[in-house]
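Try this one yourself first.
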């Protein structure tokens, strides 16, 4: 097996790098910083919807002595920045691939990302049927409030994806048209500004069966992933009907905070502000900030050898 310490995944525009064991986690106002045994320090800016989740993973990896692999966008230095973190399993490195894989970079990329998505699925409590039923009911409820035309398009696209997704996904990188409403949803749910975008570049990851939703990675936004609703017209023309972050705990807070202000005629900054409010409520960030009144918080792992103290 070949195992590079850092691999750039061209199709998704991300870089994965072996980081080793985390020895310290420091949280500041606008970023999170982690250190390893070689005293390498990486920073994660507090943007997008997943940073509180990533911060929690960093703390868990440190306290449980779990080796880590970091992710960064290819436009950022993997020696200074990261935006996600994954487990580097002992004896079966996340970045390991067969020696002949060097001649098939697309296959290697898909192999590694399948390992990543499996980690994300394992982290979820998929045995919790109540959550699955709640998500199904939420999807059905969202259809009920659609116009007759939108319902028709949703049902048409769902049938198409159920039977034709392998063909649909042959070209893994696609561009889909978006409108003002979709740009607002992306700002409010993912924290990304799509002003000036008439379409969105996406790498297909999978289809959520029996829905019109697809799981995608956004190469232009540091490898951030999301869930995109697709509508497909009679002539085969298709576009983004909605977008969300895949966080089933998000919806209650969005309803409480933005139910009457998520479709108003306001600049995109209004929706980015809603994103910040919903995120604070979703992860109880205001409470955590009150409990940690200093400008930053540092967690340091105690060495295993007491003589080292």
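Now uncover the answer:
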């Amino acid at each position: 097996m070949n195992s590079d310490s850092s691999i750039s995944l061209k199709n998704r525009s991300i870089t994965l790098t072996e980081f080793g064991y985390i020895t310290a986690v420091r949280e500041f106002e606008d970023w999170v910083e982690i250190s390893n045994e070689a005293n390498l320090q990486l920073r994660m800016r507090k943007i997008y919807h997943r940073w509180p989740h990533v911060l929690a993973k960093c703390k868990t990896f440190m306290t449980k002595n779990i080796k880590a692999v970091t992710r960064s966008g290819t436009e950022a230095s993997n020696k200074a920045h990261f935006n996600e973190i994954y487990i580097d399993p002992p004896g079966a490195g996340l970045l390991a691939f067969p020696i002949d894989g060097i001649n098939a970079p697309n296959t290697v990329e898909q192999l590694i990302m399948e390992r990543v998505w499996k980690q994300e699925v394992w982290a979820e409590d998929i045995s919790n049927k109540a959550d699955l039923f709640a998500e199904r009911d939420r999807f059905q409820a969202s259809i009920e409030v659609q116009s007759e035309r939108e319902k028709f398009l949703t049902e048409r696209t769902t049938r198409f994806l159920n039977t034709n997704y392998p063909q649909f996904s042959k070209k893994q990188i696609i561009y889909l048209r978006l409108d003002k409403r979709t740009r607002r949803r992306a700002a409010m749910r993912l924290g990304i500004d799509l002003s000036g975008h008439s379409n969105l570049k996406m790498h297909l990851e999978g289809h959520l069966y029996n829905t019109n939703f697809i799981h995608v990675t956004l190469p232009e936004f540091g490898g951030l992933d999301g869930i995109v609703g697709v509508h497909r017209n009679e002539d085969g023309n298709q576009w983004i009907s909605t977008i969300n972050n895949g966080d089933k705990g998000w919806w209650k807070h969005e309803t409480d905070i933005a139910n009457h202000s998520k479709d108003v005629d306001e600049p995109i900054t209004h929706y980015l502000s809603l994103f910040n409010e919903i995120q604070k409520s979703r992860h109880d960030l205001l409470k955590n900030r009150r409990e940690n009144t200093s400008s930053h918080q540092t967690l340091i792992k105690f060495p295993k050898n007491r003589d080292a103290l």
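Discussion: The chain has two domains: 2-123, 129-285. The radius of gyration is 21 Å.
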